[in-house]
Write a structure and sequence with these properties.
disordered C terminus; disordered N terminus; homodimer; two-stranded antiparallel sheet; 2 strands; about 150 residues
Chain lengths: ~150, ~150
């Protein structure tokens, strides 16, 4: 059997996400966006305009999954494409007024949950955020390093 | 607009989980268990026997969600109930030989991904795990503190 302490790091990522999911599902229950969708809107909103590649990296998602989210936002009229002045072959995504409205409606509820969360946290927010970012970048490196899988298309 | 640094804590939880999900989906792709199911089997396996309440707390899930997982494991013949000597009204869950076999088959793949992850991590595993646990407990406290939602049954 492997070292007990070892797999518990990834296990804790799972359990933390479950618990935060529970917190946010309850907080956002009456709003227009689910927690997962709120995260996508937030990532676009924060940067005002963002490329698909940067969005996928920011969300920790494969490009294909991020592209599905983008198509959904476009279908809803919540986001639209702008030409990318840096690169004629790609585009920049931005929230429409409608998309910003949905984000704002969810944001009030989100902020309440966030405040309760931070109040209960015995460590500084900045230190915790740094650890989460270091973990995400390590997971990304490990994902890239993994031998290519024969996943069905 | 709220303080930029503030919502990014919960955002980082989301992005970290996405990235770890990507890592583990690829690692476990050819195995018998998806990453989410692997986490459930692991929680039962680690404690050998566990109550439904302890399992739900460990996984960061509502009791009802944990109970669905338990029913699924029982249906597959991967877990069974034992009487709880501490409390005649509850039961202890344990993996069957078949359940342990599925866990073990996924575990080899999981351990590979875990090693790559830890190698890429610039901070000590124990410190990172502690931060994740503190975050989970804070999220649990915030979930409990939230006003009861009128969620549909």
């Amino acid at each position: 059997m492997p070292d007990q302490s070892s797999p518990s790091l990834l296990f804790e990522v799972f359990a933390l996400n479950q618990q935060v999911g529970q917190l946010l599902r309850e907080a956002l229950a009456d709003g227009p966006l689910s927690p997962d969708r709120y995260a996508v809107y937030s990532a676009v909103f924060e940067d005002e305009t963002i490329t698909l590649t940067a969005l996928a990296a920011r969300l920790g998602m494969p490009l294909t999954t991020a592209a599905e989210h983008v198509r959904r936002l476009e279908r809803l009229g919540h986001a639209r494409r702008l030409p990318n002045p840096q690169d004629g072959r790609s585009f920049l995504l931005t929230l429409t007024a409608e998309g910003r409205r949905a984000h704002r409606a969810a944001n009030t509820r989100f902020e309440q949950a966030h405040r309760a969360f931070v109040e209960a946290l015995p460590i500084p927010v900045a230190a915790a955020t740094e650890v989460l970012t270091a973990l995400r970048l390590a997971a990304r490196e490990a994902t890239r390093a993994a031998p290519t899988q024969r996943l069905p298309k």
